[in-house]
């Protein structure tokens, strides 16, 4: 990035951090991994980031080919930011970092930290990344606050998409805080079910496959009381 210090090392990690290691840079990339966004949309989704610093970060990331801006159809002055092909290459390492970082979330962050339902899209991608794909063709739909997205499993591959599934085998309804806390293993799906903060509609066997695919059965096994194990066997509420 022009005008900033760099690590001065002949190392790929150091070179990468020279590009995205500044504060807020990777969170801007996170927002654009969800989808293209306008300046004010990015700003509104990152509480604590000021407009001047956001402008600086966007310029720096654009200068290094991580993102680009494009005109908004029907709005002569509007610009929308989106990742370039090189920026999109950050998806896999960011998902791995997000999955690693889940272990550091706690009650303090849950009480006072900002949470956005759309972050659940990347949370799901992080949870299923590298895991064995169910040997079925089916879709799992998630309605997290005002966001809807789904995992589509077909031919041994799983794709996460924004929007509703065509004919989901399973529909999960919850709020953003509960969804993230389950992913962070702060509570199990079963605990969220019995508290009324999570609802599951659909095939119980699809529920078991989905929970296992997302690594949540593994999480339950790591709990001293094993309290998450019954979730896949629980009858979905009507």
From TrEMBL:
It comes from the Bacteria. Keywords: DNA-binding, Transcription, Transcription regulation. The keyword Lipid metabolism does not apply. Residues 11-109 form the HTH hxlR-type domain. The keyword Transcription applies. Gene3D superfamilies: SCP2 sterol-binding domain (3.30.1050.10), Winged helix-like DNA-binding domain superfamily/Winged helix DNA-binding domain (1.10.10.10). PROSITE patterns: HTH_HXLR. PANTHER family: TRANSCRIPTIONAL REGULATOR, MARR FAMILY, TRANSCRIPTIONAL REGULATORY PROTEIN. This is Winged helix-turn-helix transcriptional regulator. It comes from Streptomyces ehimensis.
């Amino acid at each position: 990035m022009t005008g900033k210090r760099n690590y001065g090392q002949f190392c790929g990690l150091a070179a990468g951090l020279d590009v995205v290691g500044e504060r807020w840079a990777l969170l801007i990339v996170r927002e654009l991994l969800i989808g293209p966004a306008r300046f004010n949309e990015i700003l509104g989704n990152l509480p604590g980031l000021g407009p001047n610093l956001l402008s600086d970060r966007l310029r720096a990331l654009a200068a290094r080919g991580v993102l680009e801006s494009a005109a908004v159809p029907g709005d002569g002055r509007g610009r929308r930011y989106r990742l370039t092909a090189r920026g999109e290459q950050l998806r896999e390492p960011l998902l791995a970092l997000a999955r690693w970082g889940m272990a550091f979330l706690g009650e303090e962050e849950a009480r006072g930290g900002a949470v956005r339902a759309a972050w659940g899209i990347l949370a799901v991608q992080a949870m299923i990344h590298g895991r064995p794909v169910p040997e079925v063709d089916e879709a799992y739909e998630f309605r997290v606050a005002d966001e809807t997205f789904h995992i589509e499993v077909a031919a041994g591959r799983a794709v996460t998409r924004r929007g509703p599934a065509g004919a989901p085998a399973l529909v999960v309804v919850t709020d953003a805080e509960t969804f993230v806390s389950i992913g962070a293993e702060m509570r199990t799906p079963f605990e969220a079910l019995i508290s009324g903060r999570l609802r599951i509609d659909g095939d119980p066997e699809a529920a078991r496959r989905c929970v296992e695919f997302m690594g949540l059965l593994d999480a339950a096994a790591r709990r001293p009381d094993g309290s998450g194990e019954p979730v896949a066997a629980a009858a979905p509420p009507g």
